[in-house]
């Protein structure tokens, strides 16, 4: 139970007390600032405290946003504020500093506003709620109260709550084909006490069942798989809308939502490949290629955003053109659809699964994702070359963490410190050569399963170390992590395909999935502000160059059948290692509450 303190006697006829109890608050009355300070001190330290002016007039949802959102240590709207345990000390100090006696009426007449200003100076995380069309005010006279009540009656509180449950920026398919009804499903779930995590889990289970249906290899199974994949996406939209509708944000929910999307999509790829195999068509290489391409696309997005989101002088003619295009409504939707976001992508996969074959699904997916990757990467390269951004040390560290360099690259980088100029194109060129040298060799060499390939892998590691020897602050240094990902993933794909034995490509699929999870986990930790996974984990997994070296040694030393077994064992070991550490982190107290925002009211 949380506690709400009214800073004076309740106003006759006001629903405020009932609204506060609806939101789960135990209501107490303070006669003045001194008694308010005593009440704040009396509430247990682990509880949330709200201070509300009894003359408050506004929507229930305005109070809900200000007093119950778990993401912020302190939040406020006119006439109401709240402090979670981490901001309780600041609130107690603010209340204790309120003077009493003659000449203090300007401070105590609207006590909540005075406390909000004090907290704003002391609590860096104070959140002032964007009300939009919602009403929240302190009515000091009967006339003001009447006007405020009319303003409240003119806006449908529940309609605003439903609208703001939907993300403000989403794809065309999601916006027009899913969200118009999934928001009502979210409300239905909220009224029955379901949590976002339960809906997220239901979405995962539905997608896994869809993958199982696809694995049957029958037309009926493919049709069922397509329908279930679409329903899984509906649930995937619903969980976030439920979280925003009921303000049920949690660290665990953020982690589940972020990781389950990838697990669902890649499990479905595996289901399609199994189903095709039942019909005598081996498409494992296509399935793995689709996973590699999709993951590399995401790494491009993550690296570019991390490199630029806090950069100074971060403008360019290309960005200005994009901003001007945003004013032309239809171009916004075209550009959102070109990048093939998850809604459009899953809809395409579902329809093609039901109507065609897995091979056609993967061809369409590879072509669509390749075009999207070319479009987004080219645009970001142009932006980077035409802007004069100065990147921060934080951005350079984030890119270094995303590079996932292991002990070997660290050793090489340490020997190369001071060589090359920070901000030049040396880093992306070295990273590109690191990937290109290895890929050209394994793709075009007659027998890549040889010790010569190990030597090429060593050369690739030397180039990778040179790429990260200086802080990654150059205009195109955000390309370093994507080059490394492409080099590692495609090398695994090609070596497994060239082994030409049953089971090699499925084993490679599992290995890339385990490594990709590690890379996604790194991204979400950085986004949450807690930094990359611990160095011991990165070293234990070998870093990208260490894993490549191990895989090439296994390919050279073992028979194709032995190589397949080794890939399977490596996939299991890496999956257990990264999953155990990831789960330990995300359920711990230091895990960040990563979340996205709904549309402003």
Question: What does this protein look like?
Answer:
With 601 residues, the protein is mainly α. It is 67% helix and 5% strand. The chain has helices spanning 16-22, 33-42, 60-67, 85-96, 105-108, 111-122, 142-153, 157-164, 172-191, 196-215, 219-246, 251-278, 284-308, 317-326, 329-338, 342-355, 358-386, 393-403, 407-415, 426-444, 451-467, 480-499, 504-527, 535-540, 543-557, 560-586; strands at residues 2-6, 25-29, 49-52, 56-58, 74-77, 80-83, 126-128, 136-138. The strands form 2 sheets. It has a 6-stranded mixed sheet, sandwiched between helices. It has a two-stranded antiparallel ribbon with strand order 4-8. It is elongated and about 90 Å long.
List the helices and strands and how they pair.
Blueprint: E1 2-6, H1 16-22, E2 25-29, H2 33-42, E3 49-52, E4 56-58, H3 60-67, E5 74-77, E6 80-83, H4 85-96, H5 105-108, H6 111-122, E7 126-128, E8 136-138, H7 142-153, H8 157-164, H9 172-191, H10 196-215, H11 219-246, H12 251-278, H13 284-308, H14 317-326, H15 329-338, H16 342-355, H17 358-386, H18 393-403, H19 407-415, H20 426-444, H21 451-467, H22 480-499, H23 504-527, H24 535-540, H25 543-557, H26 560-586
Parallel strand pairs: 1-2, 1-3, 5-7
Antiparallel strand pairs: 3-6, 4-8, 5-6
Q: Given the C-alpha coordinates, what overall shape results?
A: elongated
Characterize the biggest β-sheet. Answer: 6 strands, mixed
**Strand numbers in spatial order across the main sheet:** 2-1-3-6-5-7
| Helical proportion, percent range | 55-70%
Distance between the termini: 28 Å
Low-confidence region ranges: 102-107, 597-601
Helix count from the secondary structure assignment? 26
Beta-strand level of the residues, as a percent range? 5-15%
The tally of beta strands, per DSSP, is 8
Average pLDDT, rounded to a whole number, is 89
Rg, Å, rounded: 28 Å
Helix-strand category: mainly alpha
């Amino acid at each position: 139970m949380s506690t709400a303190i009214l800073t004076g006697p309740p106003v006759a006829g006001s629903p405020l007390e009932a609204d506060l109890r609806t939101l789960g608050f135990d209501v107490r009355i303070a006669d003045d600032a001194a008694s308010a300070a005593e009440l704040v001190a009396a509430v247990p330290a682990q509880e949330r405290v709200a201070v509300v002016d009894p003359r408050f007039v506004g929507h229930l949802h305005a109070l809900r946003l200000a007093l119950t959102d778990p993401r912020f240590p302190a939040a406020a709207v006119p006439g109401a504020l709240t402090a979670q345990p981490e901001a309780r000390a600041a609130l107690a100090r603010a209340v204790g500093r309120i003077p009493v006696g003659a000449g203090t009426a300007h401070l105590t007449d609207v006590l909540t506003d005075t406390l909000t200003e004090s907290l704003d100076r002391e609590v860096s995380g104070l959140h002032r709620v964007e009300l939009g069309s919602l009403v929240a005010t302190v009515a000091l006279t009967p006339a003001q109260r009447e006007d405020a009540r009319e303003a409240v009656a003119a806006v449908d509180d529940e309609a605003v709550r439903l609208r703001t449950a939907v993300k403000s920026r989403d794809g065309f398919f999601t916006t027009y084909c899913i969200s118009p009804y999934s928001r009502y499903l979210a409300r239905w779930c909220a009224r029955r006490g379901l949590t976002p995590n339960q809906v997220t889990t239901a979405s995962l289970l539905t997608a896994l069942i869809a993958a199982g249906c696809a694995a049957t290899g029958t037309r009926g199974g493919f049709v069922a798989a397509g329908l279930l994949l679409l329903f899984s996406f509906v649930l995937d939209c619903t969980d976030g809308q439920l979280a925003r509708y009921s303000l049920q944000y949690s660290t665990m929910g953020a982690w589940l939502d972020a990781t389950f999307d990838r697990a669902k999509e890649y499990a479905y790829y595996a289901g399609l490949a199994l189903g095709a195999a039942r019909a005598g068509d081996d498409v494992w290489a296509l399935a793995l290629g689709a996973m590699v391409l999709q993951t590399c696309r995401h790494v491009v997005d993550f690296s570019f955003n991390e490199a630029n989101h806090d950069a100074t002088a971060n403008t360019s003619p290309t960005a200005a053109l994009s901003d001007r295009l945003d004013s032309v409504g239809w171009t916004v939707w075209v550009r959102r659809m070109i990048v093939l976001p998850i809604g459009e992508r899953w809809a395409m996969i579902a329809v093609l699964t039901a109507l065609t074959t897995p091979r056609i699904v993967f061809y369409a997916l590879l072509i669509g994702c390749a075009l999207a990757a070319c479009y987004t990467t080219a645009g970001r390269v142009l932006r980077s070359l035409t802007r004069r951004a100065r990147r921060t040390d934080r951005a350079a560290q984030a890119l270094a963490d995303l590079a996932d360099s292991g002990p070997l690259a660290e050793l090489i980088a340490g020997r190369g410190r001071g060589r090359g100029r920070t901000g030049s194109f040396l880093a992306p060129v070295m990273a590109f050569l690191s990937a290109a040298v290895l890929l050209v060799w394994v793709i075009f060499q007659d027998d890549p399963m040889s010790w010569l390939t190990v030597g090429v892998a060593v050369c690739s590691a030397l180039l990778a170390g040179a790429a990260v020897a200086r802080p990654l602050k150059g205009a195109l240094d955000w390309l370093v992590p994507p080059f490394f990902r492409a080099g590692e993933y495609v090398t695994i794909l090609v070596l497994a395909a060239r082994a030409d034995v049953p089971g090699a490509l499925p084993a490679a699929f599992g290995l890339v999935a385990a490594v990709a999870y590690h890379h996604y986990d790194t991204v979400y930790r950085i986004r949450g502000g807690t930094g990359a996974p611990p160095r011991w984990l990165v070293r234990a997994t070998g870093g990208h160059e260490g894993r490549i070296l191990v895989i090439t040694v296994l390919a050279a030393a073992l028979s194709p059948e032995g190589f397949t077994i080794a890939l399977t064992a490596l996939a299991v070991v890496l999956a257990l290692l990264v999953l155990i550490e990831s789960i330990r982190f995300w359920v711990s107290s230091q895990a960040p509450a990563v979340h996205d925002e709904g549309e402003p009211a």
